[in-house]
# Entry
Amino acid sequence: MTFTVTVKDEISKEELNAIENRYLLLGYIFINGKWTNNRLEIILENSSVARKLFKTLKYCYNKIAKITVRTQKKFKLKTVYILEVIDSDNTISEDLKNLILDDDESKASFIKGIFLATGSISNPSKGYHLEMLFDSEETKNIVKNILGEVNVNIKEIKREKKYMLYLKSGEEISDFIKLLGAVNSLFAYEDIRIYKDHKNMVNRLNNCEQANLEKVLKTSDEQVEMITFLKENDYYSLFDEKTCEVADLRLKYPEESYQVLADILSKEQEKKVTKSFINHHLRKIKDVYLKIINKNASNS
# Structure
């Protein structure tokens, strides 16, 4: 079962009052309802949603829908549910025509119906993406305006002959699922999102540690090369005793950090030696080395 189906199943099984159910139904019909005079046809694939709409038509409009179940084998086997309703007194069509969404409750319920009709959410373990597709720009604009009124800042794009509203932020999708009232799906979504964010943070820290380690090793290799050159060419006499101690320590422990070198020297001398002390003398060695190299280069 996809995450989209899970969310839609939960919405369709949610206990709503008569007003909320009516607006949910109108939202669905607004997108997927097909009218032929006073005959309404709704085609859908989700059995839970079909059951929800059937009950809502009965209890909110006192209309019994004719249900036709078909099995289609195009590409893959799937079941299609067709609801047919005769709206002889035009109550449904008039409600849809004179639709008034004057509070957040009615707007949220209407959005639930729209999402049931055309929405999808990718599995959060694979990525963050929510979308709703519309056949006309006018319908897309109406839905976008309603979403804006309930503080959903949704993006839009045209895809071939369709118009898409979409979200790609995990946090925004989480807020949208909350708007849909799918609490269990929201918890599942957040669990996966927290796990992914934690995993990404650990990976970033590991990458930083690896980068720092590579930097330390590169620096220590350069220092060992400089110290070896100075020692083999009798330049040690240019340094005082402390600098020579640090130089010898670096040669003895070529892969250790400044802090570890400071700790070792502290134990050997039985007095506190800081990381800054190590850094200071290694910089002195580098300065002398560069001066000698530059001088040799200019004389050659």
